[in-house]
Amino acid sequence: MTKCASFPAARFGARWLASEAAPSLSSSPIVRTPKEIALRVACTQLLLTRWGIEAVVQSNSEKDAQEPRIHESFAALKRSIQEAGMEPWMTAREKSLMEKDLGKWSLEADLAPLVPRWESFGTLLWSLKIADRIPAYYQPFPREHLFQSTAIIPAFPQTIDQFVQYFESGEGSRPSHQVDPEAFAREVNMAEAWFWRSRVQVVLDLKRQLDTSLIEQDTTLDAATKQERLQAVEQARRKIPSSLRTIMDNIETALEQATARALEDGYISEAIKDDFAVQGRKYTDLSDHDFRDLAEFAEFRLATLAWLHGSQKDWEFERGSVKFISEVGSLWAPKA
After folding, report:
1. In a structure prediction context, what are the per-residue pLDDT tens digits for the chain, which is 336 residues long?
2. Same domain, 140 and 202
């Protein structure tokens, strides 16, 4: 493999593949207080509880959705939020979802977009040393274990109060209950590496879509269809900014060098043909479903780390807006 220092890929690694860089890590990388994190944990768990109720309603028949237990769970959740005084700590998005009537969540607009929030939830718990580790970036957090680990029972508001108080003034408020700076920095580096790799896949997919040779070699197309598609691709290519064309031209070299760096620094345990390996498979050879999952794992974990670090002010974020926490990303940072 080519050494990463020989190719100036870092400039587009930071500026395009992960947007602008955020402030660098400090010796005290987590700026959120234990109480702030605990409140965010509680709000997230309550939202995911509602998510679970709505998922049951969506998956069952209309008759099953009217079962008393579902309505009882819904009513108990609303009551707990009110009695525990959690609404002021929720985001506008969370409040909007919680205010919807039972069964009124949209599968596409409400349920599906919240699935990656399980990764946020797990990352928060890891920061408080409730979860002992963040799983590999191709594996999700175990949902049932996350819910059990907080001792919050959504139907009982006193358990929410007890959880928050533990981290406000109890043993959880001590520095020993937060991950140390070295562990945090290590996880940031890992998240940035896998996030960068997921963004690379977008470029590789676009490059493949604009590859006219694939159309010319397709023997299933008649001449007219082939010509029509070639013209469409050519029109699309002309609309691509020159900066993106440069990235596309150099993306394989950048990936080769990034893979070498990731393997050297331990962000991946295996490489296959100059690419990240995912359980014995080359990243590029994964399915579209796998691409989506890995992109969500990396993006939502990195966004949560950025919120903990303070470089991302708001909990809610637009997909695609997540920034590196370190100056140019872990794969392109100068060696110490």
Report:
1. 333 333 334 434 444 454 444 445 655 689 999 999 999 999 999 999 999 999 999 887 555 556 788 999 999 999 999 999 999 999 999 999 999 999 999 999 999 999 999 999 999 999 999 999 999 999 999 999 999 999 999 999 999 999 999 999 999 999 999 999 999 999 999 999 999 999 999 999 999 888 888 788 888 888 888 888 888 878 888 888 888 888 999 999 999 999 999 999 999 999 999 999 999 999 999 999 999 999 999 999 999 999 999 999 999 999 989 999 987 788 988 876
2. no
Calculate the alpha carbon distances from 68 to 54, 96, 266 in Å. 14, 24, 51
Answer yes or no: do 137 and 83 share one domain: yes
Which residues form the domain of 77? 34-177
82 plus 164 within the same structural domain: yes
DSSP code string of 83-118: HTT-GGGS-HHHHHHHHSPTT---IIIIIHHHTTHH
Token pair, residue 284, equals: 């590029």
Is 111 within a domain? yes
